[in-house]
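Schema walk-through. Below, the input block comes first and the output block second. Nothing else is stored per chain. Lengths vary across the set, and this one has 116 residues.
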Amino acid sequence: MFHRRFLSRSCLFLTACLGLAGAARGAEPFETFLTKHCVSCHGPDKTKGDLRIDKLSRDFKLGGDTHHWAEVMEQVNSGEMPPKKEKRPTQEEIAAFVTSLDARIKEGKAARMRMR
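--- output ---
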């Protein structure tokens, strides 16, 4: 009986840990990419192109900055950003970022459509 209860609790703990790790990883490509490749030119110290990435809303359900995020995704996906003089992200970093941002935009749009 003790063994079964221990095993059951261990499985629940492991599941919870994996869920938390997955949630942390889910945000990681997005915010890590922004911090590593965008905020130095589009943040509090510099504001190139009148765009402050650090000030854009991360609440995609409201959709207030979706047009800016779509432009960011376009610029990164096309290779225009970050500029060639900056440290270039790997293809894996670009893919993870674009995939994450695209999913956020789509989920936000779907949420707004449900609220209508």
